[in-house]
Each structure stands twice: as C-alpha cells, then as structure tokens.
Structure of histidine kinase:
Amino acid sequence: MIAALGQGRGSIRLRLSAGLAVICVFAVATLIFALFWEYDITPQDLSGPNTRAAWREIRDHVLLPILVVIVPTLLATSWVINRALSPLDRTAQSIAHAPARRGLRLPHAELPVEVAPFVTSINALLARLDDAAAQHEAFAADVAHELRTPLAIMAMQLDSPEPLDRAHLRREIGAMRRLVEQLLLLAQIEAEAATPQPPQSFILAGVAEDVVAALAPQIITQGREIALDEPAEMAATTVQGHREAVAAALRNLIENAVRVTPPGGLVRVAVGPGRCLRVADEGPGLAPEALARLARRHARADHASRDGAGLGLSIVERIMAGHGGELATAPEARTLILRFPAHLPDEA
C-alpha cells in the first residue's frame, strides 16, 4: 500500500484509494488506542476474565463507528474520485476518436485546474509540430521546383531538332547532383540532431582551402576570380561538428557570391577573426531582413535565384543551426558569414 503511494506512475484512482485506506487504518488504530487508554484496557484483558467487557467496548466504540462513518465515507469518496476524474476519461475518448489533422488541440475547458498546465504544454508542442510540418512541406515544394526546372530544360533540349548543347546539359545535371547531395547531407544532419552523435573536431582553414581549391577552376572559367585570406593566427582554429556539412555550406555561399559578382570581379573567402568563415562578393550586398526572408525554408527558390540567394541558403541556415552557430550578413562589406560558437562544448 505504501509502495502504491510512493510510486511515480500508476492509476490516480489506485493512489487516492490507497491513501484513503492508510488514513482509515490510522483512524482505527487511534480509536483503539484511545479506547484502551480511556477504559484502562490492557492486552491481557482481551483474553482474561474481562474478555467479554473488553470486546464489548471495542464493538461499541470502534467497530460500530467504523461501520456508521468510515464505510459511507469510503463509498462517497470513491464516487467523488470517479466524478473528478471523469473529464479526463471524456477527453481521452475525444482524442482517441479525433481525426489525424493539423491544428488538433486538446480540449481543456472541462479539465481540472491541476491538469491545465500539462494540457497547455501538450498544445504548445502540437503547435510547434504543426509549424515544423508546414516548413517541411514548403521546403519540399521548393525542392520540387528546383528539380523540375532543370528537368524541363533538359527535356526541351532533348526534344529540340537543334544539336544538343552538351555543356549546358552537364551544368544542369551537375546542379541537380549538388542539390541532391545537399539534401542528403541535410537529412543526415537532422537525423544526427534527433540522435546526437559525438562531434568531431576539424580545422576551419582546412575546410576553406579544400572548398576554394575545388571551386577555383570553375570560377575562373566563368570569368571571375577567387582568393583565400587565411591569417596565420587562424591556422589552427578548430570547430566541432560535421566537416562535410560545413564544406557544403561554404560552397553554397561561394556559388551565390559568384552569381552576383560581375565578370572580372573577385570573390574573397576569409577565415576569422574568431571561429567564422566569411565570403565577400562584389554584388549589392544582402540586408539582414532579406537574408532572414531568403533563409526561411518557405522562401521560394525562384525568387531567390534572381538575386543570387536560393534554396542553398535554407540549407546553409539549417547546417549552421545544427552546429550551434548562425548565418549572418555584413551588407556594408557585401559579406555573408558562417559564425560558429565562440567556445567548443568541452570548453564551455
């Protein structure tokens, strides 16, 4: 019985009933003790010559009060408990038969005040899940748009009687391949966020060198230039997380910078100061509110493609959020920044 009272889980009815039973036991023990004290009854009297008188006193002053008072009290208390918990049963039934739809909330008008904070927290969680589902749906629509456009262009070229532009087809296929790779990478990051894995340390400067070296031939072919600024003090700066994801984020920023930089212009990649990567271009710059709008998953990719910031910024923003950092902008310097936490987890 005591165990039923102390356990963290179990039936509320059972716990209340067990508590009431404990109260009854103490009440009976108190009555018996008071009776023995008042009439000076000893345990020996229960089996000695005064046995009949002792048991008569117990009957009149203990058993009859229990039958007259405690038994009706138990029945009334059981009714009160069932009535108090009946709103929970009705709410459970309504939830069990509710259709699986967005916007579902738990009714709380009839629920006890003590349960209201619990129900409010569940409704807030359902609202966050609705928002997450809406963002994923909008993101999926943007991805479909990003894939549908190059597919339509390639289909038109294949159906055209003109000779195939193989170079253009390769560019379209390459863009689709990079998008698919980024989506797979994003799915991997979100899976790791749901089941966290031990982070790995890597050097920011090494990521910048690898990405710039890989993109430099393509950028030069497009008539632009790229440079990497790597201060000596930043050579050993490390962060923890997913190296391939950070490389994909930096690649997206560089490709956006190349699109807004006029022919002959320079895209500059810098490491630091601090734990950050900077990409400066010769475009008009991107204001913080514009960056926030374009980095949201539901910002249409076709809108972004006209100013050089597309679906990639949504992926970049999610990658940085997964690393505890942020995607920021310095419009006066025409620079986008990948800013990582100032301290590694083991240093915090």
Strands lie at 200-203, 225-229, 238-241, 266-271, 276-280, 326-330, 335-339. Residues 51-96 form the longest helix (46 residues).
